[in-house]
Amino acid sequence: MGLFNKDINQKYTILATSVDKLLQVTKEIGHGALEETLTVLQTQLDAPFTFVIVGEVKAGKSSFVNALLQSDKEICKVAPMPMTDTIQQIVYGEQEEIVEINPYLKKIFQPVEILKEIAIVDTPGTNTIVRHHQEITERFIPYSDLIVFVFEAKNPYRQSSWDFFDYINAEWRRKIIFVLQQKDLLPESDLNINIQGVIDHAKNKGISEPQVFAVSAKLEKEQYYDISGFKEIRSYIERNITGGKAPELKFQNNINTLLTISQKLDDSLINRKKQYEVDIKFRGEIRELIENQHTKTKKQIEVLISNLLDSYDKITRQKQDDLETGLSFFNVLKRSFSSIFGKETGLKEWLTTQAKDFELKLNTSLRDKLQNGIIDVAENIQMMGKLVDNKLRYSETILKNNDEIFADIAERRINVLRDLQESFSQFMSTAENFYDERILTESSKMTPNLAAGSGIAIVGVILATLTQGAVFDITGGVLTATGVLFAGVTLGLNRSKIIKKFADEIGKGRNQLHDEVTRKLTDYTLRIRQKLEANFYEFDQLLENEGKKLNEVEQVQQEVRKDLKDLSKGF
């Protein structure tokens, strides 16, 4: 074996690690069949080069094995009817011994020289009526190094045999040779026709150089060695397998088996990956939909606030004009003198009236606009919910709950989506989720508070100044001529300061209106959005876990393929 011997242990360690990695993947994704295959493969890594004998019942498989081993004893039982559904694994042993591994597998130890380099597995027939035969035969194929396909020489064209060949060749791409057993039962001319027929059939199925051997276990047993056909097949085995070549071939076959399993894992995950990608896209579309509607809602709020401020500015400008006119020196004196004689209201009453009028206009205009605006915003948010609800009803399902491998995962996904649709439908039918009673109640209080904190406050200051000063005689209400003149002069001199103070307060009120309405409506829309998003918690968790699993599988697959590629170098 030369150089191969120096690093065989290290290579087998890497190979064993690859088996472990793939086994964990199969367990993680729930691929029971491949998990079983890899579990058995773990125990077969250091097994001898293995011939697996397959074929139909009564094709003469057991007789072929007995003759190939040149044993005087009947190592494999030959019976007129199928014995059991047991696989017989024949390996080298210093003494004869039969060990029952499980109900379907017997290990037969024989002191036969060739078994030091190879092991032979005799399987039940592929067309047997005995239950489990084909199933357990197929399960043993992945661990084989050479498939010996045994046909009846007189009829190598049975459909069941070639169907099984298709499985072996397509699924596992094992090295196959063909044996026409019982050649003594037909003329040589017919035998040659059947040999050529097998060659042609194998070529049509993708075998470029089919190896076909015609043998007779009966003639071999009767010591007609030159014509039994076993000399040719033994020569093939010596040239291609034994004599030190078996370990390297076995190692490469194990690599090919793992590559096949890795590819099977990829194939089995195709729909699962597609479903994950579709779900990620679907979830992204919902997020985008919610974000777009949220953006529209924010713009709607901006328009509402702009309308509120326009109304506020219009009312405050008008009131400022009224105050500038009403607090002029001439008008103050006029109202002061006229009030003495009862002709019209005095300055105090006029200012009180102005304050009430200001408050009424602000409250009426702003409250109506605000509450109507809040309802419009709520309806827009509800539209967001309706769009999401409609989207949920048309989610694409690729991974079906009858999937051969991932039925449980598909079922879990369907259940989560169904729960999501039901909870969202219930969410949509609950009006309180969209019409926040608290914000509607607070909005009715918002405008009086704003008005009280705005220019109305300065009207109150003016009232306080006038009533507490020397302008009025509080007890008798008699205003002297000197007092009137003083009041007129004082107001005239301070009118510009008062108007400026009024304008400052109006500005503060405007900012307060903008900030408070923005904050309350922004908080409101954010709460609704969070309620919408909360419905997707379980679905998001499902996608997160699925993404992690698929990433882990992909990473392991890359690691295994790199290791197997490196191990293949030099073969």
Task: Provide key terms for this protein.
about 575 residues, alpha/beta, Rossmann fold, 2 domains, 18 helices, about 10% strand
Strand segment count: 8
Residue share in β-strands: 5-15%
Radius of gyration (Å): 47 Å
Q: Number of helical segments? A: 18
**Overall geometric form:** rod-shaped
> Quick one: biggest sheet?
8 strands, mixed
Q: What is the share of helical residues? A: 55-70%
Counted up, domains total: 2
Q: For the largest beta sheet, what order do the strands appear in spatially?
A: 3-4-2-5-1-6-7-8
Tell me the series of helices and strands, N- to C-terminal: HHEHEEEEHEHEHEHHHHHHHHHHHH
What is the mean predicted local confidence, pLDDT?
Answer: 80
What structural class do you assign from the helix and strand content? alpha/beta
N→C terminal distance: 12 Å
| Low-confidence segments | 79-84, 450-456, 460-489
